[in-house]
Amino acid sequence: MKIFCIGRNYSEHAKELGNAVPENPVVFAKPDTALLKNGEDFYLPAFSQDVHHELELVIKIAKVGKNIQEKFAANYYNEIGLGIDFTARDLQAQLKSKGLPWELAKGFDGAAPIGNFVSVHDLDLNNINFSLLKNGQLVQAGNSKDMIFDFAKIISFISQYFTLKVGDLIYTGTPAGVGPVAIGDVLEGFIGEKQMLKFEVK
Ligand code: ZN
Predict the structure, then answer these.
(1) How far is the CA of 56 from the centre of ligand 1 (A)?
(2) What's the pTM value of the predicted model, to 2 decimals?
(3) Which CATH number characterizes residue 107's domain?
(4) Ligand 1 centre and the CA of 68: distance in Å?
(5) ∠ at Cα 134 (5, 78), nearest 5°?
């Protein structure tokens, strides 16, 4: 399976990192070894001193598709979940300054924790509130209505380049409030009032 991520999909987050708001979705991928499931502990990698949490709504692809038109995109997923796009911000800054790809900073083992999923029928897709608590304190809160590119646009865009297959995941971008994690931190993600994700940093 494949894991895609969208960068800079919330203008407040693009601003907090000093990035321009993009004209097309910014797409990158993580290998499947980045997945962290079932509330397993996340181990901080030795190569970074500044690993940031990025809380994101995640689309789970339910049907094979290529060149999907936006108006048909809803046929290709049934569930939305919550994940963290962990980012070694110090390493990413070095790579960006040299114009190099981001994989080392975002694709490392454990860099894609994934939680539970809910049926799209239980959600208003244009108004999904989601939030992240770090040690019980609210650190990130977002709403799908603030996405620059919505789910349909993202699926349509990615599928022009990559065939989407059942089980592929798309992390749809983080709202503002990204920040560092440290050993002992407990992260809890919510869609509305429902806890979708919980794990500890080691
Ligand atoms: Zn992200």
Answers:
(1) 7
(2) 0.96
(3) 3.90.850.10
(4) 23
(5) 40
